[in-house]
User: Which sequence fits this backbone?
């Protein structure tokens, strides 16, 4: 699977086409050097679908969090996200579930 591009949230208020979330957010940069999905045999095309779904879901979650006024910052060399269920999962669903799992690690404690 290819390495996800750095993702930047919009700075101007706008409604997300997929979610309808509308929020003014400060610029956010998230860079994932490598995403390891153990035990999965994905084709390059499936990897692209996972990557796009992951990016869209992270943007949606970040916009919803920004709308609630929550901010945090920090960096970590390694994060281990909670496990997700892989029963009969599509690449798009996998991307969304991975994003949600990763996002739990980004939430302030």
Assistant:
């Amino acid at each position: 699977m290819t390495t996800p591009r750095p993702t930047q949230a919009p700075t101007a208020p706008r409604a997300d086409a997929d979610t309808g979330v509308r929020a003014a957010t400060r610029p956010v940069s998230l860079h994932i050097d490598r995403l390891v999905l153990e035990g999965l045999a994905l084709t390059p095309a499936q990897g692209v679908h996972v990557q796009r779904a992951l990016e869209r879901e992270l943007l949606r979650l970040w916009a919803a969090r920004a709308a609630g006024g929550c901010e945090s910052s920090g960096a970590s060399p390694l994060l281990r996200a909670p496990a997700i269920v892989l029963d009969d999962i599509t690449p798009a669903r996998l991307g969304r579930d991975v994003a949600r799992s990763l996002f739990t690690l980004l939430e302030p404690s």
